[in-house]
Amino acid sequence: MRTPAPDEVEAALGPVRTELLRAAHAEAAELLARADRDAAELLDGARAEARTILEEARREGEAQGAAAGRDVCARARREARAHELVVRREAYEELRRRVTERVRELRHAPDYASVLEQLTGHARRLLGPDAEIIVHPDGGLIARVPGRRVDCTLDTLAARALGRADVEVETLWAP
Question: Using N-to-C axis directions, what is the helix angle for 154-164 and 6-104, rounded to 10°?
């Protein structure tokens, strides 16, 4: 057997090399095409998952925003109601103060002695004829018997009158 010359080896291997290169190119083209398809499928899947995540995040954000909005509105309503109650309380206290001042002015009225007589009669009807009657310095009187006491001071009478008028007083700030 003889050793073939390099030119002969080169010529004999040419068709094999050509076929190997063609097969390698075909396989590479197939691998690239498969890689492109796989990449496209991965991208499509990632895009679909991203859309799902974004939609879920949007819904969750809307739900959280709506809940936060409800919380803000509820807090605002509570604060407004608290403020309204403070203003009403201040208005009531001012009314009470003014009514008490006006009732105390009865001490200086010409018929104040008659007012004291009527209060004394009322106290004696409640406690009996032996009730001790004490004229109060701010107006009106206090009557006492052992174990019982009747407060007919002008301040107390003004407070009682306002207490009876509570429903009517409420209409001062009703819409």
Answer: 130
